[in-house]
Amino acid sequence: MILKxxxxxxxxxxxxxxxxxxxxxxxxxxxxxxxxxxxPDSAGSPLITVMQDGGTEDSPSASRGEVGIxxxxxxxxxxxxxxxxxxxxxxxxxxxxxFLRGDGKRFNAEDWTVNNTxxxxxxxxxxxxxxxxxxxxxxxxxxxxxN
Length: 147
Known about the structure:
With 147 residues, the protein is α+β, with helices and mostly antiparallel strands. The chain has helices at residues 2-11, 85-101, and strands spanning 21-23, 29-31, 33-34, 47-58, 66-78, 107-109, 112-119, 123-124, 133-145. The protein has 2 helices and 9 strands; from the N terminus they run αβββββαββββ. Strand 6 (107-109) and strand 7 form a beta hairpin.
């Protein structure tokens, strides 16, 4: 549910119109932000993938009545061979800024509250002749009430 909230947060940003469009099965075209890597072959370009990177750890910020986790997420921005590095880098920077100081610094994911996020600067993923891409590492601290 936290990954889905990250996907939805990215997809609702004004700059998400620069992403390719994709029909997730309901007949509506939405920004191409996926929770699978690799994304579907028919995904529009440029696109974003959001994946958990490793497991979770207990969060030291959880209070007595809460459960807390520390989680790492990898967000990748992919283009096709016709996309420029500059346009993809700009999208990756928009994601970085969203989680560094925008709405992504603190957000809700159903019963979880993401209290703090930190991000790496976008890192180029591409080798000569491959599809261009950038990666952002996102670390977050989330809590929810203990059941």
